[in-house]
Amino acid sequence: MAKATVAAGRVLSQRAKLNTQREYESVTILRPETARSEIADLITRMREVISGRGARLTKIDSWGMRVLAFPIAHLRKGIYLYWRYHGGSDIVAEFERHMRLHDKVIRFYTVLIDEDVDPEARPGEVTDDLLDAATDPGPDPDELARQAAAEEAARQAEYEANRRQREEEEGEAEFNANQEDDNR
Predict the structure, then answer these.
(1) Considering the entire predicted model, what is its pTM?
(2) Residue 4 pLDDT
């Protein structure tokens, strides 16, 4: 028996409206040592996968490197990427298949945002500037914490030095006032 071919990007559902797609968002966690060029390669590859399936990437955003709530694959940090795209019912399976195949991806999660979306009614083109910003892994949260602790220690030391100096000046002024009273 021959299989009927279905156009890519089409929603395969009995209740779906004609000429509509579904809107999905995915969050991907990459290994913390992932280089900027490797992130760019992943984004390029996933854009090709999404467009090859008749879907459209509407947003890509890098949430930077963050500390994980619990270790994943013995890692305590990860680089978060946020994806938003419109497509047919087959796009999620293909997206997640490619994520599983990529060795830098340690976790991903996809959610259905909206059904029966007119793809032309929701603009959102991914520009080169947006892609360039999404490849930035962001600062290391441990390094940021160390810098904040060092700045706080410096502020505290300056405050203590100023407090001691004020106390010494007040003590000298009080001593001089007592000396003048004794001389009278």
Answers:
(1) 0.71
(2) 47
